[in-house]
Amino acid sequence: DAMVIQNPRYQVTQFGKPVTLSCSQTLNHNVMYWYQQKSSQAPKLLFHYYDKDFNNEADTPDNFQSRRPNTSFCFLDIRSPGLGDAAMYLCATSDPRGGLAGVEQYFGPGTRLTVT
Amino acid sequence: KNQVEQSPQSLIILEGKNCTLQCNYTVSPFSNLRWYKQDTGRGPVSLTIMTFSENTKSNGRYTATLDADTKQSSLHITASQLSDSASYICVVNPREDDYKLSFGAGTTVTVRA
Protein backbone atom coordinates (compact mmCIF):
# COMPACT_ATOMS: atom_id res chain seq x y z
CA ASP A 1 0.00 0.00 0.00
CA ALA A 2 1.18 3.51 -0.78
CA MET A 3 2.04 5.25 2.43
CA VAL A 4 4.07 7.68 4.50
CA ILE A 5 6.60 6.01 6.79
CA GLN A 6 8.42 7.57 9.70
CA ASN A 7 11.39 6.18 11.55
CA PRO A 8 11.94 5.75 14.33
CA ARG A 9 8.52 5.82 15.96
CA TYR A 10 10.07 6.74 19.30
CA GLN A 11 13.34 8.61 19.76
CA VAL A 12 15.09 9.56 22.98
CA THR A 13 17.95 12.04 22.83
CA GLN A 14 19.95 13.99 25.33
CA PHE A 15 19.78 17.73 25.79
CA GLY A 16 22.00 19.32 23.13
CA LYS A 17 22.72 16.09 21.26
CA PRO A 18 21.86 16.32 17.54
CA VAL A 19 19.11 14.03 16.34
CA THR A 20 17.70 13.15 12.92
CA LEU A 21 14.20 11.95 12.18
CA SER A 22 13.37 10.38 8.85
CA CYS A 23 10.35 10.19 6.60
CA SER A 24 9.82 8.25 3.42
CA GLN A 25 6.86 8.01 1.06
CA THR A 26 5.71 5.68 -1.67
CA LEU A 27 3.02 8.06 -2.93
CA ASN A 28 5.42 9.86 -5.30
CA HIS A 29 4.10 13.20 -4.08
CA ASN A 30 5.95 16.40 -4.89
CA VAL A 31 5.39 18.08 -1.57
CA MET A 32 6.62 16.92 1.83
CA TYR A 33 5.98 18.64 5.16
CA TRP A 34 7.28 18.51 8.71
CA TYR A 35 5.01 19.40 11.61
CA GLN A 36 5.64 19.64 15.33
CA GLN A 37 2.75 18.65 17.58
CA LYS A 38 2.83 19.11 21.33
CA SER A 39 0.39 17.47 23.68
CA SER A 40 -3.24 18.53 23.17
CA GLN A 41 -2.21 21.11 20.58
CA ALA A 42 -2.72 21.43 16.85
CA PRO A 43 0.15 20.44 14.57
CA LYS A 44 2.46 23.37 13.80
CA LEU A 45 4.04 23.55 10.36
CA LEU A 46 7.84 23.81 10.52
CA PHE A 47 8.64 23.76 6.79
CA HIS A 48 7.79 22.08 3.53
CA TYR A 49 9.50 21.08 0.31
CA TYR A 50 7.97 21.50 -3.11
CA ASP A 51 10.24 19.15 -5.02
CA LYS A 52 13.67 20.50 -4.02
CA ASP A 53 12.42 23.99 -3.14
CA PHE A 54 12.63 24.49 0.60
CA ASN A 55 10.03 26.68 2.30
CA ASN A 56 10.70 27.60 5.90
CA GLU A 57 8.02 29.01 8.18
CA ALA A 58 9.00 32.40 9.58
CA ASP A 59 8.76 31.27 13.19
CA THR A 60 10.63 27.98 12.83
CA PRO A 61 13.76 28.12 15.02
CA ASP A 62 17.16 27.85 13.32
CA ASN A 63 17.73 24.78 15.45
CA PHE A 64 15.51 22.87 13.03
CA GLN A 65 16.87 21.96 9.61
CA SER A 66 15.68 19.68 6.86
CA ARG A 67 17.07 17.75 3.92
CA ARG A 68 15.35 16.15 0.98
CA PRO A 69 17.88 14.11 -1.01
CA ASN A 70 15.24 12.72 -3.39
CA THR A 71 11.47 12.57 -3.95
CA SER A 72 10.95 9.70 -1.53
CA PHE A 73 12.90 10.81 1.52
CA CYS A 74 12.91 13.81 3.80
CA PHE A 75 14.85 14.31 7.04
CA LEU A 76 14.36 16.57 10.03
CA ASP A 77 17.55 17.52 11.84
CA ILE A 78 17.43 19.08 15.28
CA ARG A 79 20.90 20.46 15.87
CA SER A 80 20.76 21.05 19.61
CA PRO A 81 17.55 19.69 21.12
CA GLY A 82 16.18 21.48 24.14
CA LEU A 83 13.62 20.22 26.62
CA GLY A 84 11.01 22.33 24.81
CA ASP A 85 11.57 20.37 21.61
CA ALA A 86 10.04 17.24 23.08
CA ALA A 87 7.00 16.61 20.92
CA MET A 88 5.45 14.43 18.25
CA TYR A 89 6.93 15.16 14.83
CA LEU A 90 4.65 14.47 11.91
CA CYS A 91 5.64 14.11 8.29
CA ALA A 92 3.04 14.63 5.58
CA THR A 93 2.92 14.58 1.80
CA SER A 94 0.67 16.05 -0.85
CA ASP A 95 0.16 16.15 -4.59
CA PRO A 96 -0.25 19.79 -5.67
CA ARG A 97 -2.66 18.96 -8.48
CA GLY A 98 -5.64 19.63 -6.25
CA GLY A 99 -7.15 22.35 -8.39
CA LEU A 100 -10.10 24.19 -6.90
CA ALA A 101 -10.68 21.41 -4.40
CA GLY A 102 -7.39 22.09 -2.72
CA VAL A 103 -4.71 19.68 -1.73
CA GLU A 104 -5.05 16.57 0.44
CA GLN A 105 -2.24 15.95 2.92
CA TYR A 106 -1.38 12.42 3.95
CA PHE A 107 0.26 12.04 7.34
CA GLY A 108 2.75 9.52 8.63
CA PRO A 109 2.35 7.88 12.05
CA GLY A 110 4.73 10.35 13.69
CA THR A 111 7.92 10.15 15.73
CA ARG A 112 7.63 10.82 19.45
CA LEU A 113 10.78 12.67 20.55
CA THR A 114 11.82 12.70 24.19
CA VAL A 115 14.66 14.96 25.37
CA THR A 116 16.38 14.01 28.60
CA LYS B 1 -5.24 35.64 11.09
CA ASN B 2 -6.92 32.39 9.99
CA GLN B 3 -8.39 30.62 12.97
CA VAL B 4 -10.15 27.36 13.57
CA GLU B 5 -11.85 26.79 16.91
CA GLN B 6 -13.31 23.49 18.05
CA SER B 7 -15.72 22.63 20.81
CA PRO B 8 -15.98 20.95 23.14
CA GLN B 9 -12.35 20.44 24.07
CA SER B 10 -13.19 16.93 25.25
CA LEU B 11 -16.19 14.72 25.82
CA ILE B 12 -17.05 11.32 27.22
CA ILE B 13 -19.86 9.22 25.76
CA LEU B 14 -21.21 5.73 26.32
CA GLU B 15 -20.74 3.10 23.67
CA GLY B 16 -23.62 3.11 21.22
CA LYS B 17 -24.53 6.75 21.77
CA ASN B 18 -24.24 9.57 19.24
CA CYS B 19 -22.27 12.78 19.56
CA THR B 20 -21.63 15.97 17.60
CA LEU B 21 -18.42 17.97 17.46
CA GLN B 22 -18.31 21.61 16.41
CA CYS B 23 -15.85 23.64 14.37
CA ASN B 24 -15.97 27.41 13.80
CA TYR B 25 -13.52 29.01 11.43
CA THR B 26 -12.56 32.42 10.10
CA VAL B 27 -10.54 31.16 7.12
CA SER B 28 -11.94 32.78 3.98
CA PRO B 29 -11.87 32.04 1.17
CA PHE B 30 -11.06 28.39 1.52
CA SER B 31 -10.69 25.43 -0.79
CA ASN B 32 -11.86 22.67 1.50
CA LEU B 33 -12.57 21.70 5.08
CA ARG B 34 -11.53 18.34 6.45
CA TRP B 35 -12.04 16.32 9.55
CA TYR B 36 -9.19 14.10 10.70
CA LYS B 37 -9.15 11.38 13.33
CA GLN B 38 -5.97 11.10 15.35
CA ASP B 39 -5.50 8.09 17.61
CA THR B 40 -3.18 8.58 20.57
CA GLY B 41 0.43 8.44 19.43
CA ARG B 42 -0.48 8.22 15.74
CA GLY B 43 -0.68 10.59 12.80
CA PRO B 44 -3.99 12.13 11.67
CA VAL B 45 -6.11 10.14 9.24
CA SER B 46 -8.59 11.86 6.96
CA LEU B 47 -12.28 11.11 7.64
CA THR B 48 -14.09 13.56 5.36
CA ILE B 49 -13.24 16.36 3.00
CA MET B 50 -15.73 18.97 1.77
CA THR B 51 -15.22 21.70 -0.77
CA PHE B 52 -16.64 25.15 -0.08
CA SER B 53 -19.73 24.28 -2.16
CA GLU B 54 -20.64 21.07 -0.34
CA ASN B 55 -22.98 20.86 2.65
CA THR B 56 -22.52 17.33 3.89
CA LYS B 57 -20.24 14.33 3.50
CA SER B 58 -20.50 10.91 5.10
CA ASN B 59 -17.94 8.21 5.79
CA GLY B 60 -19.62 5.25 7.46
CA ARG B 61 -20.79 6.33 10.90
CA TYR B 62 -19.17 9.76 10.50
CA THR B 63 -21.16 12.59 8.92
CA ALA B 64 -19.72 16.07 8.44
CA THR B 65 -21.75 19.16 7.65
CA LEU B 66 -20.64 22.55 6.42
CA ASP B 67 -22.41 25.91 6.54
CA ALA B 68 -20.22 28.35 4.63
CA ASP B 69 -22.51 31.28 5.47
CA THR B 70 -22.04 30.93 9.21
CA LYS B 71 -18.53 29.45 8.85
CA GLN B 72 -19.41 26.41 10.90
CA SER B 73 -18.86 22.70 10.46
CA SER B 74 -19.88 19.75 12.56
CA LEU B 75 -18.89 16.11 12.76
CA HIS B 76 -21.57 13.68 13.89
CA ILE B 77 -20.60 10.23 15.14
CA THR B 78 -23.43 7.71 15.10
CA ALA B 79 -23.62 4.61 17.31
CA SER B 80 -20.20 5.21 18.82
CA GLN B 81 -17.75 2.35 19.30
CA LEU B 82 -14.79 2.01 21.64
CA SER B 83 -12.49 2.44 18.65
CA ASP B 84 -13.89 5.93 18.11
CA SER B 85 -11.90 7.11 21.14
CA ALA B 86 -9.48 9.59 19.59
CA SER B 87 -8.87 13.26 18.90
CA TYR B 88 -10.89 14.75 16.04
CA ILE B 89 -9.30 17.67 14.26
CA CYS B 90 -10.99 20.20 11.98
CA VAL B 91 -8.66 21.51 9.26
CA VAL B 92 -9.34 24.30 6.78
CA ASN B 93 -7.33 24.74 3.57
CA PRO B 94 -7.01 28.47 2.72
CA ARG B 95 -7.43 29.08 -0.98
CA GLU B 96 -4.48 31.45 -1.16
CA ASP B 97 -2.05 28.92 0.30
CA ASP B 98 -2.46 25.21 -0.35
CA TYR B 99 0.55 24.41 1.78
CA LYS B 100 -0.34 26.03 5.08
CA LEU B 101 -3.41 24.42 6.57
CA SER B 102 -5.29 25.95 9.49
CA PHE B 103 -5.72 23.35 12.23
CA GLY B 104 -8.11 23.33 15.13
CA ALA B 105 -6.79 22.11 18.47
CA GLY B 106 -9.04 19.06 18.30
CA THR B 107 -11.79 17.50 20.38
CA THR B 108 -10.81 14.47 22.43
CA VAL B 109 -13.56 11.86 22.42
CA THR B 110 -13.58 9.03 24.96
CA VAL B 111 -16.06 6.22 24.42
CA ARG B 112 -16.78 4.09 27.47
CA ALA B 113 -18.38 0.65 27.61
Strands, helices and their partners?
The complex is a heterodimer of chains A (116) and B (113).
Chain A: E1 4-7, E2 10-13, E3 19-25, E4 31-37, E5 44-50, E6 53-56, E7 64-67, E8 73-78, E9 87-94, E10 105-107, E11 111-115
Parallel strand pairs in A: 2-11
Antiparallel strand pairs in A: 1-3, 3-8, 4-5, 4-9, 5-6, 7-8, 9-10, 9-11
Chain B: E1 4-7, E2 10-14, E3 19-25, E4 30-38, E5 45-51, E6 56-59, E7 62-67, E8 72-77, E9 86-94, E10 102-103, E11 107-112
Parallel strand pairs in B: 2-11
Antiparallel strand pairs in B: 1-3, 3-8, 4-5, 4-9, 6-7, 7-8, 9-10, 9-11
Largest sheet of chain B: 6 strands, mixed
**Percent helix among the residues of chain B?**
under 10%
- Name the quaternary structure: heterodimer
Radius of gyration of chain A: 14 Å
- Portion of residues in beta strands of chain B equals over 45%
Extended strand count of chain B: 11
- Gyration radius of chain B, to the nearest Å? 13 Å
Which protein chains are joined by the largest interface, and how many residues does each one contribute? A-B, 31 and 26 residues
Cα distance, first to last residue of chain A?
A: 36 Å
- Gross morphology of chain B is globular
Low-confidence stretches of chain B: none
Overall pLDDT score of chain A: 91
Q: Number of DSSP strands of chain A?
A: 11
Helical region count of chain B?
A: 0
Ranges of chain A where pLDDT stays below 50 over 5 or more residues in a row are none
SSE arrangement of chain A, N to C: EEEEEEEEEEE
Return the structural class of chain A. mainly beta
Describe this structure in words.
The complex is a heterodimer of chains A (116) and B (113). Chain A is mostly beta strands and 116 residues long. In chain A, 0% of the residues lie in helices and 51% in strands. In chain A, the strands form 2 sheets. In chain A, strands 2, 4, 5, 6, 9, 10 and 11 form a 7-stranded mixed β-sheet that branches. In chain A, strands 1-3-8-7 form a 4-stranded antiparallel β-sheet, with no helix packed on it. In chain A, a hairpin with a 2-residue loop joins β5 (44-50) and β6 (53-56). The radius of gyration of chain A is 14 Å and the shape is globular. With 113 residues, chain B is mainly β. Chain B is 0% helix and 58% strand. In chain B, strands 2, 4, 5, 9, 10 and 11 form a 6-stranded mixed β-sheet that branches. Chain B has no helices and 11 strands. The A-B interface holds A 4, 6, 31, 33, 40-43, 45, 48, 50, 55, 57, 88, 90, 92, 94, 96, 98, 100-110, 112 and B 4, 30-32, 34, 36, 41-46, 49, 51, 89, 93, 95, 98-101, 103-106, 108.
